[in-house]
Amino acid sequence: MTPLQKSILSAVKRRPMTLRELQNNLQVDNSRLRTTVSAMVATGELSLRNGTYVPGFATYQNEATPNTIPCTLVKLAARFGFASRDDGQGDIFIPGRALHGAMPQDKINVKLFEHPRVEGSSEGEVVEVTVPNNRFAGTVCLMDDGRMGVEPDGCRDVKFLLAKQGSEGVHLGDKVGIQITHRGPRHSDHRAAVVEKFGSSDRASECAKAILYGRNARLEFPPEVLAEAHAYDDATIDPTEAARRMDLRGIPIFTIDSAETKDIDDAISLQKLEDGGYELGVHIADVSHYVRPGSALDNEAFERATSIYYADKVIPMLPTQLSNGICSLNPNEERLAFSCLMRLDAKGEIHGYHFVKTVIRSRVKGVYKEINALLEPEEGADLTELKEKYAEVLEQLPVMDELYRKRLELRRKRGAMEIESDEAKLIINEEGRCVDIVKRGRGTSECMIEEFMLLANQCAANAGRTNKVPFVYRVHEAPDAEKMEKLSATLLACGLNAKFKNPIPTQLELAALLDETRGQPIQTPVHTGILRSMQKARYAPQPLGHYGLVLADYAHFTSPIRRYPDLAIHRILSEMLLGVSADRIGRDFQEFAQRASEQSSKKEVDAVRIERDVEDLYKAEYMHEHLGEVYTGTVAGITPRGVFVELENTVEGFVPAAQLCKGEAQVVDGVSMLDPLTGRSWMLGTSMKIRVAAADVALGRIDFEYMVE
Question: What is the C-alpha separation between 139 and 153, in angstroms, rounded?
Fold first, then answer.
C-alpha cells in the first residue's frame, strides 16, 4: 500500500469523507487523488456510500484484527456462506447479513458470535477482507430492474451489475470471465466488467473454459518457459550422457497405457529367475535431467504441480517438447530413464532394490485393451496381429500376470482396501459435444501396471526414509474417531452390527467388510461409507505411511511428466546416487521438500475439483439430449431434500423428496429415507425407475423425475 493510500484509508477511518474533503484534508493533486481513490474502490479498500468514502472490507492489512480469526471464504449463497479457518480448525457459518459482500476465495477476518443460533456451532461475521479475489467466471443474467448482470459460478442467487463497457456482444445465458471493479458493503452493490467471452452456457466446452478461467488454471506457458522448451524441439539423447549410464537398450522394455496416451512416463521389464523369483524393472522418464532447479521450466512446473486432464483435453505440467517429446518413452526411440530394479522371491515378496540412471529403448507402445486380450483371450478370437505387434515382449506377459496374482494375494493378506467406484469415459465428437458416456473398465493389465508402479513407489519412499534425507512422501493417515462413529452408524443402518476391537478399526477389519458386501445390495452404502470415513491422501515431508494401502513407505516416483512430487524426489534420489551426504542433501532440500509437499497437495485438490466439475458439465450436456427418457438407476445418495440416483453409465441426477414422500421425509444416517404416511422407504443401493426431467449444462446439474413402478 502506497503512502497516499494509507493516508486516505486513515482519513476515512476517522469519519466518512467526500472527494473534496479528502483533497482539503490531504492537500494532494486532484487528478492523482481521483485515480488513487478509484483504484482503492475497485480493490475494495474503499466503499462509496451516499457520496462519501468509507473503509472497504478489503484493506490489505496483514495483521489480524484483535479477536478475529483469519479465514478463506469457501462457499457463498444468497443467504449464507462458509469460511474455512486458516489454522485448519474447521469451517465457520456466516449468515447472509454478516457476509458484507465477501466473495469466494477472499482472505477474510471473521469474528465469532458469542451466542450462535445453534449451540456449540461456529458462527460469525466478516469484519474485514484482507485479500480480495476479484476474478470469476459467471453466467450473464438479468437483474431485477431489467439491466444486464452476472451470476458468478458457485454463488447461487448472487448477482451483480455488469458495466456496459466490455459487455458489447454479450447475450443472456453466455458464459463470461469477469473482474469485480467495484465492491460495496453488500453483494448487490458490487460491479463487474467482462474481460473474457466464452459462448453459450448450453455448450459444455464453453462452460469448461469458464471454469478454467474462474479457477485461475495456467493455460499458456510464459515466453521464457517456451524459450527453454524450444531447445528440445526434435531432440535426441546426448550420446555422452548415455555413455555414463547403465545401458538397458538390449533388454525388451515396453510401455502399457491407454490408446490415447501421449505423455508416456513409465515402462516395465520382467525376468523370471532360475530360483523361481523375479527381477522387475520399472523404468521412468528421467525428467529431472532436463528440468533443472531454478530454470523457468522448473519454476513453472512447481506452480502447476500437476497436469490437469479433463474431458478429452489436457493442461500439461510441462510443454509438449518434453511431455510428448524427449521425456516421453515413445516406442523405438532411445530415452534417458531413471530405473528401479527390484528383486522379488518366488512368493512375490520384495527382497531388494536399487535405483540407477539408465538409457532404454521401448520395444512397443502397449495398450491396456490389447494386453488384456492377450492375457485373457476370448474363445475363437484371432490374435495373430496382436501377437505380431507384441512379438518382442510376448514371453513376458504370462510372467507378469503370474507375478501380479502373487502380489494381489499379498495385498489382500495385509488388508489393503479395494473400494468399488466407477469412472466415466466421455465420448466427445469433432464439434466438442459429448455424444456418449461409458463406464471406464479396469482389466488385468490396468491392475497389473498399478501394482508394479506401487512397488517402485514403495522402494523410492523406503530409500528416502532409511537414508534420512528430505523427501516428498504420499501419505494417507488413519481415520479419526469422529468419522468412525459416523461409519458405525451407517453400518448399523445397513443392518450390519460391525464391532471393531478398537475405536479406529484395522485395515483388515475394513477390508473384510468390503469383501463381505461386494456384489450385495448394500455394497453401495457400505463402500461409500468407508470411503467417506477415510482421510484424504496428501503429500508431506514426513513418512507418515499409507493407511489405505497398508504401507509404511509410500511416495510418488513413477509420473514425473505430470506430477511435481515425482520430479522432486527424482532430484533428491539423483543426489543420493552421486554420493552426496545426507547432511548436505538435508541442507539443500529440507525447505524444498516442505514447499513442494504443500504446493502439490493444494494443486492436486484444485485439479481434481476442475476435472470433476467439467465432467459434470459434459454429463449434463449428454443427458440434455435424452430429456424425457426413462432409465433404471441406483440410489447413490440420500439427503432430507431428496435422493441422488446413479445410472449405469455413471450419470447422477436428483429426485426431490416431495416426489417420493407424501409426508415429511425421515432420513436415517444418510442411508435410508422413509415416508411415514405411506410406509415406503428407499435405501442406498436400491434400484429406482426415473425419467430425465431437466439438465442444466451451466450448473452441471441433472434432475430426475420419480416413476412409480
Answer: 7
